[in-house]
Amino acid sequence: MTALVALDYYNPDTLLQVEGGPRSVGAKAELVKDDLITVRDALYALLVPSGNDAAVTLAENFPGGYRKFVEKMNVKVASLGLANTNFVNVSGVDSPNHFTSVYDITMLAKQALDRPLLKSIVSTRKITLKSEKGNIYPLITTNLLLGRPGVLGIKTGWTPQAGECLVTLVDRNGHPIIISLLGSKDRFGETEKLINWVYTNFSWE
Questions:
Q1: Which residues bind substrate (predicted)?
Q2: 2-201, which class in CATH?
C-alpha cells in the first residue's frame, strides 16, 4: 500500500530527501540520511530489500508528512472496499490496530501488479542505484523464489506477530496466479508446495 499511495501522488522522477529517525526500524536499504533519491529509486529500495527507511522517506516527504501519508493509505483501503485492513504505519511493523487479511493483501497485490512500474520492480532480483549525491546502493531481493520458473514477484514480509509472510505472482501458461501466505514458519517452502499443487490440479485450455 505504501508503494500504491506513493505512485498516486508522486511523479517517479521527483527527488526526495532521505529521512531517518526512530520510524526507520526493521529491515533497511541502508539509505544515507539527507541523501537525494528519486521516487522510483525509493520504490526499488522499498520493494527489493524491504527497506523500511525507504518507506519512511516516501511518507515524510509527502505533503502533510508521515501522518497524512498513513491517512491516505487508509482512504485508499476504504475506496477499494477492503474492510479487514487498517494501517497505522508505512512499513508494516507490529503496532496496535495495524492489521490486514489474506484476501485484502491479495487484492492490494493485484492493484500493485496493475502498475507497470511496480510490476517491474517486484520482479527484480538485484539492482544497484546511484543517488543524486553519488551514493551507491546495491539492493538484493528478500524473495528467494524469484528466478524459479514461472515466479514473477512480488513481496516478502516478517514481524514477530505476523510471522513469515509472502505474496507470490506465478505465471502458468500465460495465466497469472497470486498466492498469499501469512503467519508461516517456512514461507518459501510452503509457497513452493502451493505452486506445485496449482500446477498439478489446475489446467487451462
A1: 155
A2: alpha beta
Report residue 148 CA to chain centroid gap: 19
- Interval 82-92: pLDDT, tens: 999 999 999 98
Grid cell of 148 as nine digits: 524459479
User: From its phi and psi, is residue 110 left (phi > 0), alpha (psi between -120 and 50) or beta?
Assistant: alpha
Q: pLDDT (tens digit, 9 = 90+) per residue, 139-155?
A: 999 999 999 999 999 99
CA angle 89, 90, 91 (to 5 degrees): 100
pLDDT at 23: 59
Residue 79 pLDDT exceeds 60: yes
Check whether 33 is labelled as a binding-site residue. Answer: no
Cis peptide before 136 (omega within 30 of 0): no
